[in-house]
Amino acid sequence: MKKKIVYLPQPGLREPVSFRSNIGISSETLDLLHKKGEQYGLETILPFRVNNIVAAQWVNLKCRYGCSQYKANWSCPPATPDLNEVRTILSEYSTALMLVGSQNRNDFYKDSNRNRTDQVKYWKGTVSLERMLFLQGYDKAISLVSGACSLCKKCAYPQACRFPMEKRPTVESFYIDLVGTLKNLGIDTKVAMELHETFKYYSVILLD
Ligand code: SF4
């Protein structure tokens, strides 16, 4: 099959970028992602095969019951794809990245401006890595972010999103059993029980 070559419209950039390389991800690209991710507090970036993702209907119960963002945020159900759509979408990818950040403060359960600032930082970091990957030739790259979108103090839902270019679904809205998926990746995780314990953020970029 003939390779599609796209010349990016950036001043001074003359090197062609080959889309759909289907070669996973190089260590050079990973280094670039790590450097950029660090600016946003993303400590770990782990490439993995998409067939390690566990998607299950029960995850949606956690969104519907016990979460204030259900039917209240564009990044959450029911505004996001249903399980059948999710399964189809996942079948169209083979590689993904797990992005991990952490927070060690005693107010992470509170609805505070500081928490929102951190959440927005991780959100923006994930989306900015997605854009960087797109420019590297991964045209299918799409982020699944950590926690309901907090770009606005109160989401405009059901009115039109104020920042549609930044809007992305959450990992959980994609029916992803995060703990089960992390287990498949050999990552040990546990619920933070005490205020002094470290709280982790996990986001995913579907890549290729
Ligand atoms: S950008 Fe604002 S309106 Fe759009 S999903 Fe996020 S919080 Fe809601």
Describe, in plain words, how this protein is organized in 3D.
- The chain is an alpha+beta fold and 208 residues long.
- It has one domain.
- It is 28% helix and 15% strand.
- It contains five helices and six strands, in the order E-E-H-E-H-H-E-H-E-H-E.
- It is globular and about 40 Å long.
- The two termini are 17 Å apart.
- It binds iron/sulfur cluster.
- The site of iron/sulfur cluster has 14 residues, from loops.
How would you write the strand order of the largest sheet? 3-4-6-5
Number of strands: 6
Q: From the alpha-carbon coordinates, what is the Rg to the nearest angstrom?
A: 17 Å
Which molecules other than protein and nucleic acid are bound?
iron/sulfur cluster
Q: State the secondary-structure class.
A: alpha+beta
Low-pLDDT residue intervals, each spanning 5 or more residues: 1-14
Average pLDDT value? 86
Written as H for each helix and E for each strand, in order along the chain, the element string is EEHEHHEHEHE
Q: Would you kindly provide a brief summary of this structure?
A:
By secondary structure, the chain is of the alpha+beta class.
Secondary structure layout plus pairing:
Layout: E1 5-6, E2 17-18, H1 27-39, E3 42-49, H2 58-64, H3 83-91, E4 95-103, H4 113-135, E5 142-144, H5 178-184, E6 199-206
Helix pairs in contact: 1-4
The structure holds iron/sulfur cluster.
Q: What attributes does this structure have?
A:
single chain; alpha+beta; 4-stranded antiparallel sheet; two-stranded antiparallel ribbon; binds iron/sulfur cluster
